[in-house]
Amino acid sequence: MPVGLHRWRIIMNTSTADLLKRVFDLTEKDRAALAGLLIASLEEEPDEDLESVWKAETTRRLSELDSGNVAGISWEDVKMRLMKGKNG
To answer: CA within 20 to 30 Å of 44's CA: 14, 70, 84, 88, which one?
Structure first.
């Protein structure tokens, strides 16, 4: 179990704590998929206005990348910047 999570066992019932231990035995890919499914299970019906705003934003960003007006940043660079406390 990752450092710091042991304190959460105090407020979890036994079956939840046991399940959490099993989750951490999963591969990173499987944990990410599970996290996405759990988050989706908490969400309400999508806000159509918000969905259209996000669709427009992602389309704009993709167009900028495709045109070469902006360059992408690798995940490794993003992690390094975050670890150093820089915003860009």
So the answer is: 14
> Residues, the chain, total?
88
Distance CA 56, CA 75 (A): 23
Does the global pTM surpass 0.70? no
The single residue listed with the structure tokens 């996290």 is 35
Q: What does DSSP assign to residue 12?
A: S
Chain segment 29-84, per-residue pLDDT in tens: 999 999 999 988 887 777 788 889 999 999 999 999 999 999 999 988 888 888 88
Structure tokens at 47: 């806000």
DSSP-assigned letter for residue 69: S
Q: What is the amino acid identity at position 84? A: K
Q: What is the DSSP letter of 5?
A: G
Helix (H) or strand (E) segment spanning residue 28: helix 28-42
Kindly give, in sequence order, each residue whose CB lies less than 8 Å from that of residue 5, ignoring residues fewer than 6 positions away. 20
Asked whether residue 86 carries a pLDDT value surpassing 80, the answer given is no
